[in-house]
Amino acid sequence: MTIDLYINEANDYARDIGAPVLHPHVSVIHYDEVGEIRHTMNRFNCYGIFLQQEFPEGLTYGIGTYHERPRERLRERLRVGATAGMGATTGMGDGSLIALSPGQIGGKHYDGTRRLYHGWVLLFDNELIQGTAIEQKLDGYQFFSYHSNEALILTPEEKDILSLLMSNLRGELATQSESFGHDDIIRDYILLILDYCNRFYFRQYREMATEGSDILSRFLQVLTDYYSRGMQRKNGLPSVKYCASELCLSPGYFGDIIRDALGESPKDYIRGFVVMRAKNLILSGKSIDRVAEELGFEYPQHFTRMFKNATGQTPRQFSDSQRKRQ
Fold first, then answer.
1. What is the mean pLDDT of the segment spanning 311-321?
2. What domains are there in the chain, each with its CATH number?
3. Of 162, 160, 181, 183, whose CA–CA distance to 173 is shortest?
């Protein structure tokens, strides 16, 4: 995967699209005021919250591609909720939110076109939050997980809350940096935004649980646990049969749920998980042989074959292309 933009600090994205720089470690961008921008495939070395009315098709996010079909199903649920008077889910979803953390890759390759977007972006550096309440609560913000690729679909009320907080935060960023409590107020706003995101994600999780998203979440956890426990060193790559068994489902039923939710087979999803994990290991500087071993391949050539089938590049070609971009 070729990276178009390395966002090594919070303001790199603002500089790339021509947005104002207001603070050395925090960037708040209002897309509506920027005008048309180019797409970029980004590697992040900071934390980011993207709140948009509509994300582009084919957006890379987390371990896969941002899917329109599941998003539209949830929008329909929100629309039905408005008709039925379902309390917090009144109205049709009016925006989507994705979150990224250091080390993640997200975006869409530049294709020569420019497009106008609506919404907000919040980016902040790790330096700003070290030793603060935000850092202490990071583990509880599951939406920053690298292995998540489920966007938050917002109700109009939720979108208004986050938009107002983004606007107020930007107003504080624009004040004089020597103003009393300036950075403390900025951190408080960021913490409040993250806490609201957590609340809204929990709301979505409860609603989607009836449609099998709990199985998707557990599937992802099975894969994550498989590697964290080092099972690949003894058993090789995780199999569909193993994952289904861990979820107490038959392989056939498990496959139907995953295909309906993601539009791809469990085997394809596992491959995407492994490929994205491989890219991270390669980008960390590890040798191809070491990456193959850590992922559970018996022979490096098997890893190379799978990687090329999935990406169109050999691991070596991917590594070389990334070095040229830096």
1. 89
2. 5-210 (no CATH), 213-325 (1.10.10.60)
3. 183
